[in-house]
Recover the amino acids of this structure.
């Protein structure tokens, strides 16, 4: 998931809201709250004795691509369990959950037949269907991703055609709403008898030189119609032909296999048990699953190995936090946050004892912003910790919400789902593509990210005052409505708050 790759497509205005926090006790940072000696020891282990890049090399070379529900996905789970045991975490175990359906990539070929004859480079999107075994020859027509209302008013023109998605004009909705409607459009195209769709991640053009980007096209959604991503060089040429009135015909053959569900997967869990309040839990996590066009080094090998290296640094430092740090490698993130949604469900009774989650999933760059998931009451206290990192890196603090990764389910549970946003300009190329390889990751950057993750986790878990308690559903629903997340969450069936959080309407006159 993750909408980072579309950052340039939308000028989203992000306004950091002012804190309305009222503190009964003035918050204290590491200089005053007694955590500094432990943090210093952890920083030493994290920076000078890091195993982050060694872990990432093992994951990419010994496991490789690891789609949830596949044999490689299980190999990754076994690897994660072995690694957590080797690091010396406590209570290491797998927490099983199951997904609605499995999927295996077969082959995807396309060739332009007219006006020129040459091969086209395509790859199938995850959890999408197949053409007939012999493929199909068809004319290409475009559909405007930014005006799906009009396109869906007349579907008959797509019968027997290959549909090339083309964002034109100004989007009338935000990214997530367009993404949700794109899924509806794909279902309608199948019903209307379209042959296939060229329109990768959310229907946008592929980024990068001769790259395709796979991915899912909804939260836990599969599509019977074959959908492919095509290199921008090939799709742009087709667009130019069509714009000049030429007829474009292609041959396309896509073969994928669905597996009947439920398909089992598991989150990988290990702990450093708290010394004073073992029942209080901070989750530190990232998703272990990846796509299959490459080895998933930046999505999300970096996050997974940062979690493991953070655990390693804390264990090696000999420091024990007051509260439990639970390290979780989620699976099924790429199919719609399935592992983290399952975690929150399976631990529902325990959520009142959770302090929040810290998640890293923005590629290969250095951490640039702590996003506190709507919890503006925590900004002041957290800033004091971030000031203590100033000699390592200048990092911003906001209360932005990230629903494109495993922070989402924790935010919905009223907790600070803290996203460690990264400065990863190249991620738009490596994201879900064949370029997502170890070469794209710099050991020093990964080491820094892992160490910052370790320091963040330990400070939250160890500070004398409890960092956060969950907001009530009413408070959370109100915040999400105020931030404008209601329509998006509703469209993906993630809104579980009913009528909660509505402002009293204007008085009737
Ligand atoms: Zn990811």
């Amino acid at each position: 998931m993750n909408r980072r790759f579309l950052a340039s497509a939308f000028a989203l205005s992000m306004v950091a809201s002012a804190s309305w926090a009222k503190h009964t006790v003035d918050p204290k940072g590491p200089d005053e709250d007694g955590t500094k000696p432990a943090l210093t020891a952890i920083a030493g282990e994290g920076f000078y004795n890091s195993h982050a890049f060694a872990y990432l090399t093992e994951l990419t070379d010994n496991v490789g691509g690891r789609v949830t529900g596949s044999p490689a996905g299980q190999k990754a789970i076994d690897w994660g369990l072995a690694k957590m045991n080797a690091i010396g975490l406590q209570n290491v175990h797998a927490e099983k959950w199951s997904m609605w359906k499995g999927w295996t990539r077969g082959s995807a070929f396309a060739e332009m037949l007219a006006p020129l004859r040459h091969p086209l480079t395509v790859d199938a999107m995850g959890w999408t269907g197949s053409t007939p075994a012999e493929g199909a020859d068809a004319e290409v027509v475009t559909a405007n991703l930014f005006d799906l209302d009009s396109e869906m008013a007349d579907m008959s023109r797509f019968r027997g055609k290959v549909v090339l998605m083309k964002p034109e004009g100004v989007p009338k909705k935000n990214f997530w709403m367009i993404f949700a409607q794109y899924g509806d459009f794909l279902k309608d195209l199948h019903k209307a008898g379209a042959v296939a769709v060229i329109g990768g991640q959310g229907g946008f053009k592929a980024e990068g030189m001769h790259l395709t980007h796979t991915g899912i096209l909804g939260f836990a959604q599969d599509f019977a119609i074959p959908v492919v991503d095509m290199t921008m060089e090939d799709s742009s040429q087709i667009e130019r032909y069509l714009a000049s009135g030429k007829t474009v015909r292609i041959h396309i053959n896509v073969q994928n296999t669905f597996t009947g569900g439920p398909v089992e997967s598991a989150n990988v869990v290990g702990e450093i048990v708290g010394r004073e309040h073992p029942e209080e839990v901070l989750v530190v996590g990232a998703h272990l699953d990846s796509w299959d066009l490459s080895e998933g080094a930046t999505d999300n090998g970096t996050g997974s190995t940062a979690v493991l290296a953070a655990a390693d640094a804390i264990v090696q430092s000999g420091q024990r936090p007051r509260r439990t740090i639970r390290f979780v490698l989620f699976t099924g993130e790429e199919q719609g946050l399935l592992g983290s949604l399952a975690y929150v469900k399976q631990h529902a009774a325990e959520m009142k004892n959770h302090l929040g989650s810290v998640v890293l999933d923005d590629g290969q760059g250095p951490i640039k912003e702590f996003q506190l998931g709507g919890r503006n009451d925590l900004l002041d206290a957290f800033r004091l910790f971030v000031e203590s990192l100033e000699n390592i890196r200048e990092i911003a603090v906001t209360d932005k919400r990230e629903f494109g990764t495993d922070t989402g389910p924790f935010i919905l549970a009223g907790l600070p789902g803290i996203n460690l946003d990264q400065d990863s300009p190249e991620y738009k190329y490596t994201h879900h593509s064949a370029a997502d390889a170890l070469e794209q990751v710099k050991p020093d950057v990964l080491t820094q990210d892992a160490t910052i993750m370790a320091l963040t986790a330990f400070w939250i878990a160890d500070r004398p005052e409890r960092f956060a308690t969950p907001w009530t559903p009413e408070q959370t629903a109100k915040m999400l409505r105020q931030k404008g997340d209601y329509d998006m969450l509703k469209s993906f069936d993630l809104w579980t708050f009913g009528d909660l959080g509505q402002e009293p309407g204007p008085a009737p006159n």
Summary: The chain has a mean pLDDT of 94. The pocket of zinc ion is lined by residues 2, 287, 299-300, 333, 361, 405 (CB under 6 Å). The longest helix spans residues 297-317.
